[in-house]
Write a structure and sequence with these properties.
Number of strands of chain C: 28
Distance between the termini of chain B: 5 Å
Radius of gyration of chain B: 16 Å
Helix content of chain C: 25-40%
Strand order of the largest sheet of chain B: 2-1-3
Largest sheet of chain C: 7 strands, mixed
Structural class of chain B: alpha+beta
Number of strands of chain B: 3
Oligomer: heterotetramer
Largest interface: B-D, 33 and 33 residues
Distance between the termini of chain C: 43 Å
Radius of gyration of chain C: 26 Å
CATH superfamily of chain B: Phosphoribosylformylglycinamidine synthase subunit PurS
Number of helices of chain C: 24
Shape of chain C: globular
Bound molecules: adenosine-5'-diphosphate, magnesium ion
Chain lengths: 221, 81, 700, 81
């Protein structure tokens, strides 16, 4: 299976993500430069964490307007898998691949800690190896992790069953305790926690690894 | 030419920064403050030809990048220099 | 504006054989400032041990470098950003982090971890909360954005810092040992290239400000505050690291920190025994109407000066432009040992290199032993007992600003980016793995200012000992040191005496611990309105863990484990042999796999240490019995050095005890892990939950 | 009463945000933009008695909290509602 990891200016988790899919999970991985439009025939595009364009103006705003995002849009339209982690999730919202927006944490501070999450859905392409209701711990590290959507939007997210991950102990004010959502079609997933930082035993936690393995399993079939 | 752009959160959108500022202002003894909303103020220098053309341009910049219209509204003025 | 003394000015005139013009005088002023030329400290820094079989680069470069085997090395350094952080805490701290990161990646290393050491005024001083919030947010703001984890540090409060906080930032990076880059200009005809940000008016006179005391007039002398731009620095870092891979393209490189273009151009020329011809008009400027003086002295952040191999300019340009950075060829290397600057077709300055750099003044300033400072109460005759409710005293200590949990601080630092963090804030030392060779690096920053005030020599020795002990507690072998020496006004003979004594202490201790000092920084003039800070040397020590070794943590692991104290509760002065024996025993026991936990006893004494051991995820308690004839206060709260609390499985006890050699130290069995309370003799008996709450909620 | 407060970086203070926005606007094809400065726009609701009194209050809020006068300048208008 071939992963494409986008490098926006200011991304800083691309190497971590590359390390997990390539060195730990032994998959093919390539970097995709933000100004290119060729997705190099990858099976899954990952928008990594970081501070694209410094998160100046709004988190993810400037990266969402990068040339490569047009190719990613076409790829997603064709049903291609797109995973946005942290800043990647913010970019997916800014680019309107996913509804809502991520705003400043309620306490106005950067929050770096492990959080407990509950899996709301395991019938998605990204979470099939977990169990419904399973609780996992993953690190978060962000300033704008507070998910916001208006009432109508929230109702529709719920109706369409788009909420995949929730915080059990909301750290940042996210509406509906939302930590990760999927698009209606089910091929674009964004989450604030960092599964790539929790994919190796030596780091004290590998509960995030099943996200990548779910994707890989899918492609094997 | 100069554009002065004001970006504010839409009504109803929660503004944690504004709330924190309100809290601190009260704490500092400014009792009369009732509500605070924190937005952005952006100044652009442009070498536009006409005011109208510049207006169209600036609107397009706001729509495409400067504001996230899911939660923000914007307004602007163009000043000839 | 010149900060040269009359005598220094005469020296300049003599060296040049004429009067300097305004730009030249500006150049001399910054290059001969304390901050840049170390004129008051040089003679003492010379004594430091700087070599070992592992040292690849000692002091004198942007960072020190130590060999970690398998063809890899680590580069690390600590720097102060005290004065700017007091003026504008967020930006001051942020640009401090930016500066130290540049120091590491100019050497060719990729930064993988940062730490910081912070000193604020008294908690109840009106400016303290503002400064604390700003500094912490600034450190996080810069490091988080760069994607370099901040994995440890220290944060303490004392009224001596009310008018002069300390912000010391440390970064460590990894590089191939045969790919070290240095700040050197070589090769006549090679182009001099400025990359990164545009040059603005920010920070002019920053270096001279750092060499001046604060007073009411400082307000007006303020240089334009430098605003950090971590986004540009991130791009600059990636571009430099990519450029280093172009075989032979970069001859030398140096970041632009204090004294900006002036410092980098003169220092690089001096190191290479060459000169430079600079075209100041070619420098990309942020503002219009800048003069040669302003261009040469600007401290705009996120810039680098590099010397390329002639012919490779376009290869390099491609990389920097891909990362959307400025790339400007601003001059070339010349054989004549002079730096000349042209502006609008005219010669703006023309100075011989040597007088500006190597001939900078060196002073042996007068020293004077101060009279009695305050007396430390001896633990054997404690009289002023205010309460014998030790539960309350312990709780009070645990929730005091200096001993409480600093989680409020490190929650704001990304600790896990990079996927190398094995141990972050909360443990005795931070540990990151080196993906390249499977080993791991432990790091600790420590300062003991009060001890240094009372006895600068011993205080410095104990600072080094504590740093080493922290590393040993996580299972690492100490291999090197970087330091930041924060002092008051060196023109005050008592301060100069403190400095001299501290340097002597650091020298002796680093020799004993075999941890060469490979880099560091001196910050003098930490004086506000006549009040000097305590002498505050901060030691950043780095240690090595072998392949595949999991670091030790301070927390109890399992009910029924037994607790040993290595070292003694006493009121004896510090003793090197005892310290080395304690550390040696702990490390050996760890390496043999005998330990479940290890935690050093430092501020707050044994009771605080034991409580901290209970604050692991599983909040296990302990029952402890200590009978060594001392008063309860001395046993519970005494701060005798050279002690480590360890826990082990009962079945390992025999082997552990058998490790003791030559009787310098014999560990004492003091208790057992279990329950949800901490009990010490019949003095302390309190629930872990209550102690933990007091400790964890005190700050923030 | 309502106060509209504009907070901008002082002249000469580097504005990395503005520079980054400028870069992106150019990438998006807005060639005519020459300079961008990003500041804050704060709206306060106050139950002040007189305009003068409110003015004094708002100035004091700016000095004490809203603007970081080491690097920022501010200006404001009071609108009676
Ligand atoms: N400014 C800071 N940044 C990051 N971590 C910090 C900071 N201040 C304190 N810490 C962390 O809090 C813990 C306790 O600090 P400290 O009491 O100074 O440790 P020790 O006494 O073992 O040197 C350490 O793990 C340290 O890394
Ligand atoms: Mg310790």
């Amino acid at each position: 299976m071939k992963f494409g990891i986008i490098q926006f200016l200011g991304s800083n988790c691309e190497a971590d993500t590359f390390h997990v899919v390539h060195n730990v999970l032994k998959q093919e991985a390539v970097y995709l430069w933000h100004e290119e439009t060729d997705l190099k025939k990858v099976d899954c595009v990952i928008l990594p964490g970081g501070f694209s364009h410094g998160d100046y103006l709004r988190a993810g705003a400037m990266a969402a307007r990068s040339p490569i995002m047009q190719s990613v849009a076409a790829f997603a339209d064709r049903g291609g898998l797109v995973l946005g982690i942290c800043n990647g999730f913010q970019i997916l919202c800014e680019a309107k691949f996913l509804p809502g927006v991520l705003v400043r944490n309620k306490n106005l501070q950067f929050i770096s800690e492990d959080v407990e999450l509950v899996l709301e859905r395991t019938d998605t392409l990204f979470t099939s190896l977990y169990n419904v209701g399973q609780k996992i711990r993953l690190p978060i590290a962000n300033m704008e992790g507070h998910y916001y959507i208006d009432d109508a939007g929230l109702t529709s997210l719920k109706k369409n069953n788009q909420i995949v991950l929730r915080y059990t102990n909301n750290p940042n004010g996210s509406i509906g305790d939302i930590a990760g959502i999927i698009n209606e079609k089910g091929n674009v997933f964004g989450l604030m926690p960092h599964p790539e930082r929790a994919s190796e035993k030596i780091l004290g936690n590998n509960e995030g690894r099943l996200i990548f393995e779910s994707i890989i399993k899918l492609c094997r079939r | 030419m100069k554009a002065k752009i004001y970006i504010t959160l839409k009504n109803g959108v929660h503004d944690p920064q504004g709330e924190a500022v309100l809290g601190t202002l009260k704490h500092l003894g400014f009792e009369g403050v009732q509500g605070v909303r924190v937005g952005k103020y952006i100044e652009l220098n442009l070498n536009g030809v006409s005011k109208e053309q510049t207006q169209t341009q600036v609107r397009s910049m706001c729509e495409k990048l400067l504001a996230n219209t899911v939660i923000e509204s914007y307004s602007f003025e163009i000043v000839e220099q | 504006m010149s900060t040269l003394t009359d005598q220094e000015y005469q020296q300049v005139v003599q060296a040049l054989g004429r009067k300097p013009n305004e730009v030249e005088l500006g150049i001399f002023s910054v290059m001969w400032s304390e901050h840049c030329c170390y004129k008051s400290s040089k003679i003492y820094l010379k004594q430091f041990p700087t070599k070992s079989s592992r040292v690849l680069q000692g002091p004198g470069e942007n960072a020190g470098i130590i060999d970690i085997g398998d063809g890899y090395a680590i580069a690390f350094k600590m720097e102060s950003h005290n004065h700017p952080s007091f003026i504008e805490p967020y930006q001051g701290a942020a640009t401090g982090v930016g500066g130290i990161l540049r120091d590491i990646f100019t050497m060719g290393a990729r930064p993988i971890a940062s730490l910081n050491s912070l000193r604020f005024g008294a908690m109840n001083h009106p400016r303290t909360p503002y400064l604390l919030r700003g500094v912490v947010a600034g450190i996080g703001g810069y490091g988080n954005c760069m994607g370099i984890p901040t994995v440890g540090g220290e944060t303490t409060f004392d009224e001596c810092y009310n008018g002069n906080i300390l912000v010391n930032a440390f970064t460590l990076g990894v590089l191939k040992k045969d790919k070290i880059f240095r700040g050197i200009a070589k090769g006549v005809g090679n182009p001099v290239i400025l990359v990164g940000s545009k040059t603005g008016r920010d920070g002019i006179h920053g270096a001279t400000m750092a060499s001046d005391v604060f007073d009411k007039e400082s307000e007006s002398k303020r240089p334009t505050v430098q605003v950090g731009d971590p986004f540009t620095e991130k791009k600059l870092m990636e571009a430099c690291l990519e450029a280093f891979e172009l075989e032979g393209a970069i001859v030398g490189i140096q970041d632009m920190g204090a004294a900006g273009f002036t410092c980098s151009s003169f220092e690089m020329s001096a190191k290479g025994g060459v000169g430079m011809e600079l075209m100041l008009d070619k420098i990309p400027l942020r503002e219009t109407g800048m003069t040669p003086y302003e261009i040469m002295l600007s401290e705009s952040q996120e810039r680098m000066l590099l010397i390329a191999q002639k012919g490779r300019e376009e290869d390099l340009r491609k990389i920097f432009e891909k990362w959307e950075l400025e790339f400007a060829i601003v001059g070339e290397v010349i054989a004549e040992k002079r730096v000349k600057g042209y502006f609008h077709g005219e010669l703006a300055f023309d100075l011989p290199v040597e007088p500006v750099t190597d001939a900078a003044p060196v002073y042996e300033r007068p020293v004077e032993v101060p009279g009695t400072r305050f007396q430390v109460p001896s633990t054997s005759n404690l009289e002023s007992r205010t309460s014998d409710n030790y539960n309350d005293i312990l709780l009070k200590l645990l929730s005091s600003p200096n001993l409480c949990s600093k989680e409020w601080v490190w929650r704001q630092y990304d600790k896990t980016v990079g996927t190398n963090t094995l141990l972050a804030s909360g443990a005795d030392a931070a540990v990151v793995r080196i993906k390249e060779n499977g080993k791991a690096i432990a790091m600790s920053v420590d300062g003991k200012a009060k001890d240094c005030y009372l006895n600068p020599y011993l205080g410095a020795v104990e600072t080094v000992a504590e740093a080493a002990r922290n590393l040993v507690c996580v299972g690492a072998k100490p291999v090197g040191v970087s330091d930041c020496l924060n002092f008051g006004n060196p023109e005050n003979p008592e301060i100069m005496w403190e400095f001299k004594e501290v340097c002597r202490g650091l020298t002796d201790a680093c020799k004993k611990f075999e941890t060469p000092i490979v880099g560091g920084n001196v910050s003098f003039y930490n004086e506000t309105e006549g009040k000097n800070i305590y002498p505050t040397p901060i030691v950043a020590m780095v240690g090595l863990l072998e392949k595949g070794v999991t670091p030790m943590t301070p927390w109890w692991k399992q009910n029924g484990d037994i607790i040993y104290l290595i070292g003694e509760n006493n009121d004896q002065p510090f003793d090197f042999e005892q310290e080395l024996a304690v550390q040696g025993l702990c490390l050996e026991a760890f390496q043999k796999g005998l330990l479940q936990s290890a935690h050093d006893v430092s501020e707050g004494g044994l009771a605080v240490t034991l409580a901290e051991c209970c604050f692991g995820k599983n909040s296990l308690g302990a029952t402890v019995d200590v009978n060594d004839g001392l008063a309860p206060e001395a046993i519970l709260f005494g701060e005798a050095p050279s002690r480590i609390v360890v826990s082990l499985k009962p079945e390992n006890e025999k082997e552990f005890v058998a490790l003791v050699k030559n009787g310098v130290t014999s560990p004492t069995l003091i208790g057992k892990v279990g329950g949800n309370k901490l009990k010490i003799n019949d003095w302390v008996d309190e629930s872990i939950d209550k102690l933990w709450k007091g400790w964890v909620t005190a700050l923030g």
